[in-house]
Amino acid sequence: MIPEADRIMISQDEIAAKVQELGSRISQDYGGEEILVVGILKGAAIFMSDLVRSIASPVAFDFMAVSSYGASTESSGIVRIIKDLDQSIEGRHVLIVEDVVDTGLTLNYLVENLRSRNPASLKLCSLLDKPSRRKVEVKADYTGFEIPDEFVVGYGLDYSERFRNLPYIAVLKKDVYIK
Ligand code: IMP
Ligand code: MG
Protein backbone atom coordinates (compact mmCIF):
# COMPACT_ATOMS: atom_id res chain seq x y z
CA MET A 1 0.00 0.00 0.00
CA ILE A 2 1.22 3.51 -0.79
CA PRO A 3 2.17 5.72 2.20
CA GLU A 4 -0.46 8.36 1.34
CA ALA A 5 -3.25 5.80 1.87
CA ASP A 6 -5.02 5.26 5.15
CA ARG A 7 -6.38 1.85 4.18
CA ILE A 8 -7.45 -0.24 1.21
CA MET A 9 -11.22 -0.05 0.82
CA ILE A 10 -11.64 -2.42 -2.14
CA SER A 11 -8.95 -4.91 -3.12
CA GLN A 12 -7.80 -5.77 -6.62
CA ASP A 13 -9.49 -9.19 -6.34
CA GLU A 14 -12.79 -7.70 -5.19
CA ILE A 15 -12.73 -5.26 -8.11
CA ALA A 16 -11.99 -8.04 -10.61
CA ALA A 17 -14.87 -10.19 -9.31
CA LYS A 18 -17.27 -7.26 -9.44
CA VAL A 19 -16.24 -6.32 -12.98
CA GLN A 20 -16.95 -9.89 -14.12
CA GLU A 21 -20.35 -9.81 -12.41
CA LEU A 22 -21.27 -6.48 -14.01
CA GLY A 23 -20.08 -7.68 -17.41
CA SER A 24 -22.25 -10.81 -17.18
CA ARG A 25 -25.32 -8.80 -16.19
CA ILE A 26 -24.76 -6.32 -19.01
CA SER A 27 -24.22 -9.13 -21.55
CA GLN A 28 -27.45 -10.79 -20.45
CA ASP A 29 -29.43 -7.55 -20.61
CA TYR A 30 -28.21 -6.48 -24.07
CA GLY A 31 -27.79 -9.90 -25.67
CA GLY A 32 -26.63 -9.53 -29.28
CA GLU A 33 -27.49 -5.82 -29.43
CA GLU A 34 -24.50 -3.54 -29.99
CA ILE A 35 -23.69 -1.30 -27.04
CA LEU A 36 -22.06 2.09 -27.51
CA VAL A 37 -20.01 2.34 -24.34
CA VAL A 38 -19.33 5.97 -23.44
CA GLY A 39 -16.51 6.35 -20.95
CA ILE A 40 -16.27 9.54 -18.94
CA LEU A 41 -12.65 10.63 -18.96
CA LYS A 42 -10.42 10.32 -17.22
CA GLY A 43 -11.68 8.53 -14.12
CA ALA A 44 -13.61 5.77 -15.90
CA ALA A 45 -10.82 4.79 -18.31
CA ILE A 46 -9.40 1.90 -16.28
CA PHE A 47 -12.78 0.55 -15.19
CA MET A 48 -14.08 0.77 -18.76
CA SER A 49 -11.07 -1.04 -20.22
CA ASP A 50 -11.63 -3.98 -17.86
CA LEU A 51 -15.42 -3.90 -18.09
CA VAL A 52 -15.62 -4.08 -21.90
CA ARG A 53 -13.47 -7.23 -21.84
CA SER A 54 -16.05 -8.92 -19.63
CA ILE A 55 -18.95 -7.99 -21.95
CA ALA A 56 -19.93 -10.61 -24.54
CA SER A 57 -22.27 -8.34 -26.53
CA PRO A 58 -20.82 -6.37 -29.46
CA VAL A 59 -19.34 -3.11 -28.21
CA ALA A 60 -18.29 0.21 -29.73
CA PHE A 61 -16.39 2.88 -27.78
CA ASP A 62 -16.66 6.59 -27.38
CA PHE A 63 -15.46 9.01 -24.72
CA MET A 64 -16.50 12.29 -23.20
CA ALA A 65 -14.57 14.58 -20.92
CA VAL A 66 -16.31 16.98 -18.58
CA SER A 67 -14.98 19.43 -16.05
CA SER A 68 -14.99 18.11 -12.49
CA TYR A 69 -13.28 19.10 -9.27
CA GLY A 70 -9.98 20.42 -10.54
CA ALA A 71 -7.52 19.92 -7.70
CA SER A 72 -10.15 20.10 -4.96
CA THR A 73 -12.26 17.29 -3.49
CA GLU A 74 -15.56 19.23 -3.65
CA SER A 75 -17.78 19.48 -6.73
CA SER A 76 -18.40 22.97 -8.05
CA GLY A 77 -21.76 22.01 -9.54
CA ILE A 78 -20.75 23.50 -12.86
CA VAL A 79 -20.43 20.94 -15.63
CA ARG A 80 -18.63 21.81 -18.81
CA ILE A 81 -18.04 19.51 -21.80
CA ILE A 82 -14.34 19.50 -22.61
CA LYS A 83 -14.49 16.69 -25.15
CA ASP A 84 -17.74 15.68 -26.80
CA LEU A 85 -18.61 12.38 -28.48
CA ASP A 86 -17.12 11.71 -31.93
CA GLN A 87 -20.34 10.27 -33.31
CA SER A 88 -24.09 10.63 -33.28
CA ILE A 89 -25.85 8.43 -30.73
CA GLU A 90 -29.25 8.64 -32.36
CA GLY A 91 -30.82 5.17 -32.38
CA ARG A 92 -27.86 3.61 -30.51
CA HIS A 93 -27.89 1.70 -27.23
CA VAL A 94 -25.72 3.91 -25.07
CA LEU A 95 -24.12 2.78 -21.82
CA ILE A 96 -22.40 5.56 -19.88
CA VAL A 97 -19.48 4.27 -17.81
CA GLU A 98 -18.42 6.42 -14.86
CA ASP A 99 -16.03 5.98 -11.95
CA VAL A 100 -18.21 7.32 -9.13
CA VAL A 101 -21.58 8.95 -8.61
CA ASP A 102 -21.01 11.42 -5.81
CA THR A 103 -23.27 14.50 -5.69
CA GLY A 104 -24.79 13.29 -8.97
CA LEU A 105 -24.35 16.70 -10.58
CA THR A 106 -22.06 15.47 -13.35
CA LEU A 107 -24.20 12.50 -14.33
CA ASN A 108 -27.47 14.32 -14.00
CA TYR A 109 -26.18 16.80 -16.55
CA LEU A 110 -24.73 14.12 -18.83
CA VAL A 111 -27.84 11.95 -18.82
CA GLU A 112 -30.04 14.94 -19.71
CA ASN A 113 -27.63 16.01 -22.40
CA LEU A 114 -27.31 12.56 -24.00
CA ARG A 115 -31.03 11.81 -23.71
CA SER A 116 -31.77 14.90 -25.82
CA ARG A 117 -29.76 13.30 -28.65
CA ASN A 118 -32.35 10.49 -29.02
CA PRO A 119 -30.46 7.27 -28.30
CA ALA A 120 -32.47 4.02 -28.60
CA SER A 121 -31.67 3.46 -24.92
CA LEU A 122 -29.51 5.10 -22.29
CA LYS A 123 -28.16 3.33 -19.22
CA LEU A 124 -25.57 4.11 -16.64
CA CYS A 125 -22.88 1.92 -15.10
CA SER A 126 -20.84 3.29 -12.22
CA LEU A 127 -18.05 1.50 -10.41
CA LEU A 128 -18.75 3.36 -7.16
CA ASP A 129 -21.73 5.07 -5.62
CA LYS A 130 -21.74 7.44 -2.63
CA PRO A 131 -25.50 7.76 -2.02
CA SER A 132 -25.08 9.87 1.12
CA ARG A 133 -23.52 12.68 -0.92
CA ARG A 134 -26.31 13.05 -3.46
CA LYS A 135 -27.54 16.57 -4.32
CA VAL A 136 -29.64 15.56 -7.33
CA GLU A 137 -31.27 12.21 -7.95
CA VAL A 138 -29.26 9.88 -10.15
CA LYS A 139 -29.71 6.13 -10.17
CA ALA A 140 -27.19 3.95 -11.97
CA ASP A 141 -28.56 0.86 -13.72
CA TYR A 142 -25.39 -1.00 -12.78
CA THR A 143 -23.39 -0.17 -9.65
CA GLY A 144 -20.20 -1.88 -8.53
CA PHE A 145 -19.91 -0.83 -4.89
CA GLU A 146 -21.83 1.48 -2.59
CA ILE A 147 -19.30 3.25 -0.42
CA PRO A 148 -19.48 5.68 2.52
CA ASP A 149 -18.64 9.37 2.28
CA GLU A 150 -14.88 9.07 2.08
CA PHE A 151 -12.52 10.35 -0.57
CA VAL A 152 -10.98 7.44 -2.43
CA VAL A 153 -8.30 7.03 -5.07
CA GLY A 154 -7.06 4.28 -7.36
CA TYR A 155 -8.37 2.18 -10.25
CA GLY A 156 -8.89 5.37 -12.26
CA LEU A 157 -9.85 7.73 -9.44
CA ASP A 158 -7.43 10.52 -8.71
CA TYR A 159 -6.49 13.21 -6.31
CA SER A 160 -4.90 16.03 -8.33
CA GLU A 161 -4.25 13.58 -11.21
CA ARG A 162 -2.30 11.23 -8.92
CA PHE A 163 -3.01 7.64 -7.86
CA ARG A 164 -5.14 6.66 -10.88
CA ASN A 165 -2.83 3.72 -11.55
CA LEU A 166 -3.29 1.97 -8.20
CA PRO A 167 -4.78 -1.48 -8.84
CA TYR A 168 -6.97 -1.18 -5.69
CA ILE A 169 -9.24 1.52 -4.25
CA ALA A 170 -7.83 3.23 -1.19
CA VAL A 171 -8.92 5.88 1.28
CA LEU A 172 -6.46 8.73 1.20
CA LYS A 173 -5.05 10.07 4.46
CA LYS A 174 -6.82 13.35 5.21
CA ASP A 175 -3.53 15.25 5.60
CA VAL A 176 -2.79 14.59 1.92
CA TYR A 177 -5.55 16.98 0.84
CA ILE A 178 -6.39 19.03 3.96
CA LYS A 179 -3.58 21.51 4.51
P1 IMP B 1 -20.37 14.40 -8.92
O1 IMP B 1 -20.71 15.33 -10.01
O2 IMP B 1 -20.28 15.09 -7.59
O3 IMP B 1 -21.22 13.16 -8.83
O4 IMP B 1 -18.86 13.98 -9.14
C1 IMP B 1 -18.43 13.01 -9.97
C2 IMP B 1 -16.95 13.15 -10.17
O5 IMP B 1 -16.27 13.61 -9.00
C3 IMP B 1 -16.33 11.81 -10.46
O6 IMP B 1 -16.35 11.51 -11.83
C4 IMP B 1 -14.92 11.97 -9.91
O7 IMP B 1 -14.06 12.52 -10.90
C5 IMP B 1 -15.05 12.96 -8.78
N1 IMP B 1 -15.08 12.29 -7.47
C6 IMP B 1 -16.12 12.16 -6.62
N2 IMP B 1 -15.79 11.47 -5.51
C7 IMP B 1 -14.50 11.14 -5.66
C8 IMP B 1 -13.56 10.40 -4.85
O8 IMP B 1 -13.84 9.88 -3.74
N3 IMP B 1 -12.30 10.28 -5.34
C9 IMP B 1 -11.91 10.79 -6.55
N4 IMP B 1 -12.75 11.49 -7.34
C10 IMP B 1 -14.03 11.66 -6.90
MG1 MG C 1 -11.47 13.47 -10.77
Characterize the structure shown:
By secondary structure, the protein is of the alpha/beta class. It has one domain: 3-Layer(aba) Sandwich (Rossmann fold), CATH 3.40.50.2020. The chain has four helices and nine strands, in the order βαβαβββαββββα. The strands form two sheets. Strands 4-3-2-5-6-7 form a six-stranded mixed sheet, with helices on both faces. Strands 1-9-8 form a three-stranded antiparallel sheet. Helix 1 crosses helix 2. It is globular, with a radius of gyration of 16 Å. The chain starts with a strand and ends with a helix. About 30% of the residues are buried. The mean pLDDT is about 95.
Put the structure in a nutshell.
The protein has 179 residues and is α/β, with parallel strands linked by helices. 23% of the residues lie in helices and 30% in strands.
- Unreliable spans: none
Q: What is the overall shape? A: globular
The main pleated sheet reads as:
6 strands, mixed
Order of helices and strands: EHEHEEEHEEEEH
What is the tally of beta strands? 9
List keywords for this structure.
single chain; 6-stranded mixed sheet; 30% strand; 4 helices; 9 strands; Rossmann fold; binds magnesium ion; 23% helix; 179 residues; 3-stranded antiparallel sheet; binds inosinic acid
